[in-house]
Amino acid sequence: MERLAELVARAVRICNDARVMGTQGHCSLRDPDNPNVMWINNRHSSRSTVRADEIVPYDIAAGKRIGDGIEPPSEHFIHRELYRRFPDVNGVVHAHAEKILALSCAGYVLRPLITSATFIPADGAPVFDSPVLIDTEARSKAMADAMGTAPIVVLRQHGTVTVGRSIEHAVTRMVRAEKNADTLSLALAIGTPRFFPDEERARLAGEAGELHGIKKFWTYLEEMADQNGALAGIA
């Protein structure tokens, strides 16, 4: 359990160091020994200094924190619904990445433009058309309906959610999506973006989604966060 809690804390700090998470946001993982349990940062933890002892266990079926202590974030419903709906999802990230947020505010769809972000659907990331907090079961179900089978959903003028086969996978997708939004914003300012033909995108998506690629990207983010002093004192 300590290992899982430390990994979630590490994921939150890496997201903060990578500038996709700030004062708000949360990461979670599904417990590999008990698929009905998820681990998530509590609602009071600082995203820049969150520690392993601030990661809390949550009963997915019962919809409540396991044991006594500080509760998970109000939008934990996002994580619960995605774990309930998709058995192969083992990591979830909700953040307010600024470039994705800016495109959403301007009414632009987040389409894949760089090779590392070809996990984003060709016609664009689905959008949940509301900026309101997802702090009820009904709203989380509506968000998941909008997301469909995509690995990402943009919450209009609010934030972004990514999922993955692991928490590392979900984190790298969030960072890659934000980098894609940054490049897309620049391309739109320069001229007309050139998007990938279907065949190219399919091939690139396969390459970017391989275990080696995910591990390589996560290792880079982890090393950069460590060099920046962002991982000190987690345990």
CATH top level assignment: Alpha Beta
Name given to the CATH architecture: 3-Layer(aba) Sandwich
The 3D shape can be described as globular
Indicate the radius of gyration in whole angstroms: 17 Å
Strand order of the largest sheet: 4-3-2-1-5-8-7-6
- In CATH, the homologous superfamily goes by the name Class II aldolase/adducin N-terminal domain
| Intertermini distance | 12 Å
How large is the count of helical segments? Answer: 7
Number of domains: 1
- SSE string, helices as H and strands as E: HEEEEHEHEHEEHHH
Question: Which runs of at least 5 residues are low in confidence (pLDDT < 50)?
Answer: none
From the 3D structure, determine the CATH topology.
L-fuculose-1-phosphate Aldolase
Structural class: alpha+beta
Helix proportion? 40-55%
Mean pLDDT: 96
Number of strands: 8
Tell me what you see in this structure.
- There is one protein chain.
- The chain has 235 residues and is of the alpha+beta class.
- The chain has a single domain, classed as L-fuculose-1-phosphate Aldolase.
- Helices cover 41% and strands 14% of the residues.
- It has an 8-stranded mixed sheet, sandwiched between helices.
- α1 (2-17) crosses α7 and α5 (167-190) crosses α7.
- The longest helix has 24 residues, at 167-190.
- The model has no long low-confidence stretch (mean pLDDT 96).
